[in-house]
Amino acid sequence: MRNLRLQLIAWSTLLLGLFLINTGYTSADLFAERRVSASFSAATLVMNVLKTANNKKADTLFTTYDMVPDGFEVGALRVKKGGKMGFQYRMSTRQLAGDTALCDKLQIEVWKKTESIYNGALKDLRIDSTLDTSKPDDWVYFVRLDDTNKALAHLTCTFDLRFKTYTSTSDVESTKGLYSATNIHNTVTTGTW
Question: How far is C-alpha 125 from the chain's CA centre?
Answer without folding.
Answer: 18
